Amino acid sequence: MGDEKLLDAFGAWLQALGRDAELLGGLLTSDEADDAARKASAGGLNYLFKSLDLIPDGIDDIGYLDDAFVLRVAAAQAIASSPNAGKEVVQLAAENDLVKQFLGETYSRLDHYVTGLRTGAARGRTVQDILGSEDVLEEFLEDVKGFAADYRAPGFSRDPKNLIKLRAFFDAKLPK
């Protein structure tokens, strides 16, 4: 896929990040989602909040794109477990093919990392806390809704150098 199509897609993903977070949050209460799908969704969303709380990474032109990538990988993992969990999430999961194509060999490291998010925590909440307590789940989903309502996509330069920066970011940050 050419740089222009990647830049178009990634720009659109930045615009849709709040909506995408809400879609993934919907799996946490879906009757169609199994436990593995809920864990994948909660882990991906927890990453978003952990990312929000970190010191800026110095990649302003592409900030939040790692979150968009993680949500797509988490959606793909959730849909692999619960294929009938929701057509909107299925579409989000389908966009993971572009993540695979873009990252190439690095994708397996990202997929493994996203799987590991199921045991992580952000803002004092583990995935187990989120899924094990109605009160924590309700608070978490309110945080997701709040993020979606307040989110404003950052500026995104359609400079092909951003694709190089993004690949380098993933290569440097993902465990080997």
Could you characterize what this model shows?
The chain is mostly helical and about 180 residues long. Helix content is about 70%, strand content about 0%. The protein has a two-stranded antiparallel ribbon with strand order 1-2. The two termini are about 25 Å apart. The model has no long low-confidence stretch (mean pLDDT about 90).
Strand order of the largest sheet: 1-2
Uncertain regions spanning at least 5 consecutive residues: none
The coarse overall form would be globular
Distance between the termini: 26 Å
The helix/strand series, from N terminus to C terminus, equals HHHHHHEEHHH
Helix segment tally: 9
CA-based gyration radius: 15 Å
Largest sheet: 2 strands, antiparallel
Question: Helical percent range?
Answer: 55-70%
Question: Taking all residues together, what is the mean pLDDT?
Answer: 92
- DSSP, total strands: 2
- State which percent range the strand residues make up: under 5%
Q: Which structural class is indicated by helix and strand composition?
A: mainly alpha
